[in-house]
Design a protein that fits this description.
Layout (H helix, E strand, L loop, with lengths): L2 E6 L4 H11 L4 E7 L8 H4 L12 E2 L3 H7 L2 E4 L6 H10 L3 E4 L7
Parallel strand pairs: 1-2, 1-4, 2-3, 4-5
Length: 106
């Protein structure tokens, strides 16, 4: 079984490293990656070292419904204050959420 994943906040260093790790995982398919700054641009324009792994993948704006339609699990990697509003929306719609932001740290 392959898990369809989304990454909210995929253009920075942490997002790039996460996507580098996921690129070689045999049981995941990255189907959605967001970036406010680079929406519409090819993912590999920002992370050229991953060119062989993510052909055709483009950055999108955050669209909760589109993420729910395309993903089973979503990594949330956002600046302070953003995850606390997005994560409940994903959970309410049945997505598994892995939060890499600071919003829910104890």
């Amino acid at each position: 079984m392959v898990v369809r994943l989304g990454v909210v906040g995929g253009s920075g260093y942490t997002g790039g490293e996460l996507l580098r790790i996921l690129a070689v995982h045999p049981k995941v398919e990255v189907t959605y990656v967001t970036s406010r700054e680079y929406a519409g641009k090819p993912f590999t324009a920002i992370h050229p070292h991953l060119r062989g792994f993510y052909k055709g993948l483009k950055f999108s704006n955050v669209d909760v419904e589109a993420i729910v339609e395309n993903c089973e699990t979503v990594f949330v990697n956002t600046p302070h204050g953003v995850s606390s509003t997005l994560t409940p929306q994903f959970l309410e719609r049945g997505l598994r959420v892995i939060d890499l932001s600071a919003d829910f740290r104890l």
